[in-house]
Amino acid sequence: METFLVAVLVCVVAVALDWLVGEPRRWHPLAGFGRWASVAEAGLNGQPQAAARSLCLGALATAIVVTPVLALAVALQFWLGGWLWLVAQVAGVWLAMSLRGLAEHGRAVSSALNTGDGDQARKAVGWIVSRDAAALSDEGVAAAASESMLENGADAVFSSLFWYLLAGLPGVVLHRLINTLDAMWGYRNSRFLYFGRFAARLDDLMNWLPARLTALTYALLGSTRVALRCWRTQARTWDSPNAGPVMSAGAGALGVTLGGPAPYANGIKERPVLGRGPGASAATIEGAIALVQRGVMLWLSVLLVLALACSWVVPGGAG
């Protein structure tokens, strides 16, 4: 029980650290991992391959780039002790999530929309979404940013907390590495359709439960009845098994309409409509950011109460 309380306190300190200083602007470990992954991908995915071979090479590349980092995270448990091990855990959770960074990216878009600077808003949203930002209307910009806040809140914040609490530092490290590979290789184009499939499916698997806990969190903190109805009726129409619940519940909680057709470099992608209500605006982006932030506070509060209650009920429990 004491171990659970320590883990929750690690999360609290990591969230506070993220809130105070944000993520590192330079020398972020994930940037180095991304370069290492790019080298491995270039070496194994340089020539057109048959589907089965490409899939196997993608699985091999995933193992090659992830195993050394994961092994280091596991080894730290034996190399470090006491305060050093606690510091390593706080640092791992802090580096794995991006609560403040997510809000900063979203507010760069909402601030530009509020001042009527549509060009700057499209430039800012282009940093966080893959669609053709230049072809977006102001409402489309707001919708894209809102969707990004809701989805990345699940991927980059709630899932990190979940995997740390479930499997410690190795768990949160593994999740962040696989999620990064999915972002790099999870494209449905000729280069990555099969090569990136192993990482993409593993990311889907690791995010399945955290995504649904996130969707429930959004629903509880917004228009609950509408959010649950949207989740139940709309989530399965989305092409991502985890983004569907998160974004439909989030849109319903905010009382807005998201989804729908979106422009990409290769043309318009017809997407289902999510949520219910008016179209997105700058206020929707702010609402999505607040939903993520309030959700984190809810998780930490509930976990802290549970951990304290367990430590009182089972004094001196196994740790």
Automatic annotation (TrEMBL):
What name goes with this protein? Cobalamin biosynthesis protein CobD
User: Taxonomic classification, please?
Assistant: Bacteria, Pseudomonadati, Pseudomonadota, Gammaproteobacteria, Pseudomonadales
UniProt cross-references to InterPro entries, sorted A to Z: Cobalamin_biosynth_CobD/CbiB (IPR004485)
What pathway is this protein said to act in by its record? Cofactor biosynthesis; adenosylcobalamin biosynthesis
Subcellular location, record wording = Cell membrane
Q: How does it sit in the membrane?
A: Multi-pass membrane protein
Q: What is the top-level taxon of the source organism?
A: Bacteria
PANTHER family to which the protein is assigned, alphabetical: COBALAMIN BIOSYNTHESIS PROTEIN CBIB
Q: What does this protein do?
A: Converts cobyric acid to cobinamide by the addition of aminopropanol on the F carboxylic group.
Of the GO CC terms on this record, one is: plasma membrane
- Give GO terms: molecular function aspect only: ABC-type vitamin B12 transporter activity; threonine-phosphate decarboxylase activity
